[in-house]
Amino acid sequence: MIKRKRFGQHFLNSNSISQSIVSEAKITKNDVVFELGTGLGILTPLLCENASKVISVDVDEQLTKNAQSKFSNIENLVLKSGDGFKSKEPFTIFVSNLPYSKSKEAIEWLAQSSFSHGVIMVQKEFAEKLFAKSSKKRKAVSVIADYSFEIKILSNVGKNNFSPPPKVDSVILKIVKKNVMSKDLIHTINKIFSYRRKTVKNILKQFNKESEIDKRVDDLSGDEIINLANQILKK
Length: 235
Ligand SMILES: C[S@@+](CC[C@H](N)C(=O)[O-])C[C@H]1O[C@@H](n2cnc3c(N)ncnc32)[C@H](O)[C@@H]1O
Known about the structure:
- This protein is α/β, with parallel strands linked by helices.
- Helices cover 35% and strands 21% of the residues.
- Strand 2 (32-36), helix 2 (44-48) and strand 3 (53-58) form a beta-alpha-beta unit.
- The N and C termini lie far apart (53 Å).
- S-adenosylmethionine is lined by residues 7-12, 36-37, 39-40, 42-43, 57-60, 63, 83-85, 97, 99, 102.
- One of its GO terms (molecular function) is RNA binding.
């Protein structure tokens, strides 16, 4: 099979890691599971064992077709081809070995979605970014993730558990939904980070709003950044 690099196609080859991802997802008969990136389907049938329904989407049509013939006997499975981040299907649990180039997009999409919890695999460096509290390492996505989810590291996963092996190590995270964010709030937080050297006063001036706060973005807490974004958005 040709690896399509732009789709982040590094397929998990470990049955024990797959089992532990699915068991950490704590799926019950009331759950609708959304899997982003069917790939070769190492997780897909396991997700179906306890769920009411599993929706598994892959952007690569060939992979979806292969999965459709391989799993044609699984009644609670819906396989679709397309961009998973465009899906509007409701779900309660999200599970994905994310295509790493799409990790930020995934967090922003999940921040806007309403669901219970999820298990995601991300690149180790991206996970560090999500937990970054120090001003230099902290990015817009760190603030968005911190506001949206309770995040816990479940385990580290080495490169050799994938075929072909990627250049980076991975981390499995459990995310529990705290708050749903609007697209506008996410956009505004990203905008604030593009002005990270400016003071609150100067940022608000650009939006025709006043403030006496001289602190720079890097010196604000996550909550203060959310407040600033809400202030910018306020009509
Ligand atoms: C890291 S692989 C994981 C595949 C499989 N779940 C596994 O664990 O081996 C990521 C998968 O996501 C798919 N993908 C990439 N971008 C996507 C998108 N926007 N929507 C849905 N699937 C996508 C890729 O084609 C690839 O199959």
